[in-house]
Every structure is written in structure tokens, then in C-alpha cells.
Amino acid sequence: MQIKDYTYYHGTSRTNAALIMRNGFYQPPLVSKTDIIERNIKTGIGSLGIGVYAFCAIKEHALLFAHRKIKLEPAIISFKILNDDYILNFTIPQTLRIYNEFLLSAYRTIQELKPKYSNKGYSKSLDGAIIETFMQFLMQENYVTHIQGVYKTSINNFGNYLNYSWIPNSIELCLKDISLINHATIQLA
User: Fold this and answer.
1) pLDDT of the residue at 120
2) pTM of the model
3) Pick from 34, 52, 46: which is nearest to 125 by CA?
């Protein structure tokens, strides 16, 4: 199956779910490398950068995330995406090869990010800042013209898993461009 063939689950509060069902998802802002380095951003940054987060295929993970983050009255919204042509896919070797080359060349940039972002806790903002700068690199070096989302396996501790394994237990999608969402498929799950 391709990325576009799966159903995605977004965990949120009931209040936010009602707003999303009425108005659609919020379009995340575009940010520059300078904005990321100077932390001149007005929104939160997660482990895959800035965007709308969803779990691939496993509804329960969205619910567990919502319970952990929201605590009271969580809700799940499901949707599909229209295509996966401009998804940065961290599950394919070519992306990982280019990413590792980037990490070697971006040492100074990463050192600038480290005092401003952290990988402590469950929101790995340093990873997200690195991914945001990697996306800028890919566009600057003409690997891609634009990126609509990031797709990656992840390790999530939802409180019911023991922290003894580095084997990924989730796949997450972070949408940078909400026009990728097939609006006819959005529903409360």
C-alpha cells in the first residue's frame, strides 16, 4: 500500500474536534530556516516539525495520544489524503541517505538549534527543528520543489508500553499543507 491508501487518525479534544468538523483543519504556517534557528515561530513544533499530526492506520494510538495530552474528553478525527507525491518519506532508503548526508553537513546549524529546542519529554522539538531545516535544505538543493508532509515510523510511550524497546510502534504523518486532506473523508472516528 502507498501512503495515500491509509486512513489517518488525529487525536484532539472534543472542542477542537467540533471546530475542525465545522471549519476544517488549521493551515500550519510556513517557516524559514531563519525562523527555525531564531525560534521565531508562533506555534508548537513536534518531532516531525510544524503541522497537523495524525497516526497511520491505528486509531487507538490517536486516542492514547489524546488521553496523554488532553486528558479530558478526547476525540478522534479520521481522514484520508489525496496523494502522496510530495510527502517526505523517512521509511525509504534514499531519503535516509540524503538525510544522513545533510546531518554531516549541517553540524553548525544543529549546534545553533540545540540550546533552543529539546528532545526531552514526548514532544521532540529538536528533532522537529532539524526536520524543518532538512526540508529547507532539500528545496534549496533542488531535490524537491515543495513538501506537503512528513511520514515516519516513531516510538510512542502511551503509558501502557514499557520503555525497553527502540522498535517503532507507530507511523505518524505530519501535514504541512492541509489541501492534501481529502475533505470528503473527514469524520469523527
Assistant:
1) 84
2) 0.93
3) 46
Identify the CA nearest to 34 among candidates 97, 88, 113.
113
- Number of alpha carbons in the 13 Å side-chain half-sphere of residue 43: 15
The Cα–Cα gap between 103 and 12 comes to 33
Q: Which residues of the chain have pLDDT under 70?
A: 71, 122, 159-164
CA 149 to CA 53: how far, in whole Å? 10
- Torsion angle, CA of 92/93/98/103, rounded to 10 degrees? 100
CA angle 156, 174, 120 (to 5 degrees): 40
Helix then strand count (H, E) for the chain reads 6, 7
pLDDT given for residue 59 in this prediction = 96
